[in-house]
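User: Sequence recovery, please. Input:
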């Protein structure tokens, strides 16, 4: 989910920024803005899943290895929304974004530069 969204949003947002920021903006700046936008969307899509998995794995186990609080991912999601609302699924969003942003920026910048180099050499 994350990788497919990451690349497609990166390409789309780069095109949008390139069309609207034409006043001498360098390609690295456009790549930077595209990667930040892509990172935001990826975290928005993946964070609720990460949060649910983290809560499932961190719960205490009862007899037979069953979780004491949640019985499944769907149960964890349901209980989180019931107790905290939809915003509860995005608890810690900015920490997740700050963790992912440097990785996203570097990966997409290198991918973009290697793609540009491949086009130049072809």
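Assistant: Recovered sequence (122 residues):
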């Amino acid at each position: 989910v994350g990788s497919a969204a990451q690349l497609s949003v990166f390409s789309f947002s780069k095109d949008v920024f390139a069309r609207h920021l034409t006043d001498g903006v360098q390609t690295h700046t456009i790549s930077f803005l595209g990667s930040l936008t892509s990172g935001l969307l990826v975290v928005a899509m993946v964070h609720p899943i990460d949060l649910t998995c983290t809560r499932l794995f961190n719960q205490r186990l009862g007899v037979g290895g069953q979780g004491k609080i949640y019985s499944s991912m769907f149960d964890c999601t349901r209980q989180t929304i019931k107790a905290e609302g939809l915003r509860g699924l995005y608890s810690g969003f900015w920490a997740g974004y700050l963790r992912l942003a440097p990785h996203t920026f570097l990966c997409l910048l290198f991918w973009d530069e290697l793609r540009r180099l491949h086009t130049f050499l072809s």
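DSSP finds four helices and no strands in the chain.
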